[in-house]
């Protein structure tokens, strides 16, 4: 074993995990690469060719990097555990009228657990991923904070990681900007990889058609939910739709109804198959409840504090006062925010540090 130790690197075949593995190898770590097969897209009946981290091309790309640098590489099949937890939750959340974020659920409950089990089996002290985030140890806690590249920062999707997982996790690319990572890849001879466009789709929905996925996953869903009602915020019937699971809070395009002005999904009511539509100001709210809390920085119940709170991954964040009440967090924004969607994650920041996060349960107006 090297003087730095042995590290298990999650390799998707993409540029970030490739540079992560190469960087650690060059720094003197004994690297073992691992690629996780989470989903076989062919079984979903989608129309687009399988792409991304589970495709054969990506697996081969990861393996070729390991061959180039001379370290071991393994492929593990976690499709069963991934499907049981992540995909079933994804479907259940839409059926419940919420908007899930499967990547966060996968990180929290599947990928890290799978990686650490294999790390133990392979006698690896650490695991490493290509996330654009950073970690430090302070006051007896392992803390997550934003990556140097604000445009690529992925600290939002890591709020659910527990201390025992963070203790053994490395984020080597978090201290660099994306152009620097691309240059490193080219310097190591991976020019084609460095120039490859990135995918932002959910891994099991590479055609980005979650409605089609739901219909294929639940064969009688379309029949059950057809004939739903569009109503205004005042209760006026505006028209009909194909089913409430096919809409998300804040949605404006693809509604299938023309009212002569822009309208947005304001509320989803599964019990009556109703989708409430309103104007832009109607989709703004200033308070919410958050459940399934994980406090990364402050483990004790909060008496209350000021934060910057993000309600989705690309939200810039808004000033908010948070206060924990029993097992939920009450979040009161100091300004109106758009499209607070139940099921999405709320992540609380103090400067660049992730204080904690949870799942949005419901929003309300003060």
Number of domains: 3
How is the biggest beta sheet arranged? 6 strands, antiparallel, barrel
- List the total number of helices: 9
User: What is the average of the pLDDT values?
Assistant: 91
What does this structure look like?
This protein is α/β, with parallel strands linked by helices and 366 residues long. It has three domains: 6-195, 3-Layer(aba) Sandwich (Rossmann fold); 226-278, SH3 type barrels (Roll), CATH 2.30.30; 283-364, Beta Barrel (Elongation Factor Tu (Ef-tu), domain 3). 26% of the residues lie in helices and 31% in strands. It has a six-stranded antiparallel beta barrel with strand order 12-15-14-13-16-17. Strands 3-2-1-4-7 form a five-stranded parallel beta sheet, with helices on both faces. The chain has a four-stranded mixed beta sheet with strand order 9-8-11-10, with no helix packed on it. Strand 10 (264-269) and strand 11 form a beta hairpin. It is globular, with a radius of gyration of 22 Å. The termini are far apart. The mean pLDDT is 91.
Q: Strands, helices and their partners?
A:
Layout: E1 6-10, H1 15-26, E2 30-37, H2 56-69, E3 72-77, H3 79-95, H4 102-121, E4 126-128, E5 133-138, E6 141-146, H5 163-166, E7 169-170, H6 178-187, H7 191-195, H8 210-217, H9 221-225, E8 228-232, E9 237-241, E10 264-269, E11 274-278, E12 284-295, E13 305-310, E14 318-325, E15 328-338, E16 345-350, E17 353-364
Parallel strand pairs: 1-2, 1-4, 2-3, 4-7, 8-11
Antiparallel strand pairs: 5-6, 8-9, 10-11, 12-15, 12-17, 13-14, 13-16, 14-15, 16-17
Helix pairs in contact: 1-2, 1-6, 3-4
